[in-house]
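Protein fold
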Amino acid sequence: MKTDKFERNRQQKLEQIKSLGIDPYGGRFDDAESLAGIRARQAQSPDVPPSAGREGSAKCAGRIVLLRDIGKLIFITLRDWTGTIQVGLSKSRLVGMESQWDLAKLLEVGDLLGVTGALGKTKTGEITIWGDKITILSKSLLQPPEKFHGLADVDLRYRQRYVDLWANPEVMEKFKKRSDIISSIRQYLAEAGFLEVETPMMQTIAGGAAARPFITHHNSLDMDLYLRIAPELFLKRLLVGGMEKVFEINRNFRNEGLSRRHNPEFTMMEAYQAYADYNVMMDLTEGLIMSLVEKYCRNTEDRRQKTEDRTQKTEYRRQNTEDESRIEFDGQTIDFTKPWRRAAYAELLKEHSGCDIADITAIREKAQQLGIDEAGMDDAVVINEVFEGTVEDKLVNPTFVIDYPAVLCPLTKRKKDNPDYAERFELYIGRMEIANAYTELNDPAVQKENFRIQLKGQDETMATMDEDFINALKYAMPPAGGLGIGIDRLIMVLTGAASIRDVVLFPLLKPEKKNS
């Protein structure tokens, strides 16, 4: 790889740092305080002089994102994962060997630096650490983005997330929020009595969803394995074993296309509850997601200020609460006000396509109008294609689509009063499927027949019956409700991200084009 002039210049400075007897890649740096913590402490004690001990001193570490060398003074903006702070360096203040000032003169944007010094403010009121000692912790050899607050090229940001995270503070905040959201989901489910479990990522049979798997090979056993497309069948085995409320948050892998809403490797939360049904799962889903909206999408500071005055009128508070239930996502306003709509699949199909679900002739005509090549398709598949083409784009506010055609749901218990339909729902938010849930099928004979029908016409890699799962059902699986939530898509909504790549740290991308 050809080295550019900027890298050569940085390499020269690396050698100069070494010549000072300083390790340019540092080492352990104990007792560093977060930059946000330092700022908060200074805000609480703004008038404490530097000589007053701990309150007037600071020790921190971070990346240099801005550097201004004005001769006798060097001003640095240091960033860690909590924020930024200004550091002031002068030759007269740096203690110890003269090499400290020599080192300061060799520093560049992108370097990782440790600083110890007095905490104060400049004449303009900027909180500043006046450095008494600096420690280089790692020398950056590549030129960072020209502006410390922006790596603009979207494709480059995804490919070089390691730069994106520190160059764009809002990206760091989004991924910290993602981690916090997932922790909140775990806490909510744990408080509801669910036990978190782990099931195999590599499976001998790809099951639990209709999707093309990734295939790998185990050399020692000389056998092909599949990266899981869903954990469903293993989680149901745990219901058979007596674990009555279980959930898992982990990766699924589907060998399918890329889009702003699809990544072949994605995070799914699946939960199963014994002696429940899809209505229980709807309540669980609505409660869980509303708890996240309240925690992460409402302006809690504004709410605190508005409720401090206990003389507020009830009507004003009610209207304010309604406003707080609306969030902006992908150019649309989503109203999370409860209760969320629960509408039958056939009802929505009629509402948005104009077709009765029983009128297959009209539905096939509608499919042709939509440009769908319906010839040779099974009736149920055509119906679902028309549903996806006419209904899904209309579902902006949270909507539970319930009671799917049973033929589309091989793992779902049918409705007792109308066995043509299954007790299944999909939750749509912002024109996007977020969750899928069933009243789980637990009759082994019916399940085996459904598998047999489902496997017809599939290629050899997929046309394998999971006999062990059928065997598990024969030991009696309790009636149950099951739920799957796409974590990446949910986080898109909660953070306002238009693309799934904005909420996945390292999304799969097309190979980068090389310049000839």
Summary: The longest helix spans residues 169-191. Confidence is low (pLDDT under 50) at residues 48-55, 300-321. The two ends are 13 Å apart (CA to CA). The chain has 16 helices and 19 strands.
